[in-house]
């Protein structure tokens, strides 16, 4: 195990290993929960990496699974210890989508479809502030500022001089025409979008209204892929009160095929830049 893996990914890898040990033992999560006098949901959360795993949890589970190799137990215990460290995002306080940030921070590539807004990693500060203010009208200004700062910090992955995040964004035309923050904010946002699209590791495509129905009609989603083969790809679907993470191979494959259809139906890179430029002109009048 490398020493520079972030805590979210550590929890995920540890959960995968604990699930493997349970399956080798031929036990269900319910059976394990009964043995440890805990809820089945706790076992599920430990295995999917959504919950912090203590060294005591690891010790108890290894006992149930009758793991006799002390090197394996020690390795898992160390992973549990490392997984409880804090990532950079914890410095901003309670962030509702911290699990996603942890995955995004470690991802090698990200494919995202956005039907309503410009993707967060490509937003200007003015656009982000206006967008979050509109989405959270009752939130205090301090919370708005925190979210904007977190979004700006996330963008470091895209603009990193070495090993930047490979980003592919398919954006619906409605995101470009929705007036967020006023004409000047939108003009700056669209100009920034074109500028970012010229980076060698960033691809932006627009899906115009005239394409009609398409595979992404049901809403936003993102596919994260990681440099380590031990980390399976993840489909992320953002919700109002909770988020959905899909990791089963069949689910990831289905969303990947959907994304290929979206890319095929969208305007190509040059057409997209011209299309964005034409919309930007409407914000200069």
TrEMBL record:
HTH cro/C1-type domain location, by residue?
A: 18-73
What is the top-level taxon of the source organism?
A: Bacteria
What single Pfam family name could you report for this chain, choosing any that match? HTH_31
Q: Which PROSITE patterns does the record associate with it?
A: HTH_CROC1
Cited InterPro entries: Cro/C1-type_HTH, DUF5753, Lambda_DNA-bd_dom_sf
According to UniProt, the name of this protein is Transcriptional regulator with XRE-family HTH domain
Source species: Streptomyces clavifer
């Amino acid at each position: 195990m490398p020493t520079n893996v972030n805590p979210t990914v550590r929890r995920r890898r540890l959960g995968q290993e604990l699930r493997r040990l349970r399956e080798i033992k031929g036990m269900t999560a319910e059976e394990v929960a009964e043995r440890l006098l805990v809820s089945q949901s706790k076992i599920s959360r430990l295995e999917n990496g959504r919950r912090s795993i203590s060294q005591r949890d690891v010790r108890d589970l290894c006992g149930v699974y009758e793991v006799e190799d002390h090197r394996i137990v020690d390795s898992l215990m160390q992973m549990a210890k490392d997984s409880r460290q804090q990532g950079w995002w914890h410095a901003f306080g309670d962030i509702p989508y911290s699990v996603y940030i942890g995955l995004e921070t470690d991802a090698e590539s990200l494919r995202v479809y956005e039907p309503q807004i410009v993707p967060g990693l490509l937003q200007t500060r003015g656009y982000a502030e206006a967008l979050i203010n509109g989405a959270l009208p009752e939130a205090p200004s301090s919370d708005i500022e925190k979210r904007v700062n977190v979004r700006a910090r996330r963008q470091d992955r895209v603009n990193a001089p070495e090993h930047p995040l490979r980003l592919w964004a398919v954006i619906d035309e409605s995101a470009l025409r929705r007036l967020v923050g006023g004409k000047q904010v939108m003009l700056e946002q669209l100009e920034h979008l074109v500028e970012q699209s010229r980076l060698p590791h960033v691809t932006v495509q627009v899906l115009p209204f005239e394409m009609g129905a398409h595979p992404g009609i049901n809403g936003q989603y993102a596919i994260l892929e990681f440099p380590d083969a031990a980390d399976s790809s993840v489909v992320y679907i953002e919700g109002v009160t909770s988020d959905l993470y899909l990791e089963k191979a069949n689910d990831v494959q289905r969303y990947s095929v959907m994304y290929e259809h979206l890319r095929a139906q969208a305007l190509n890179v040059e057409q997209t830049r011209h299309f964005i430029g034409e919309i930007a002109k409407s914000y200069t009048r």
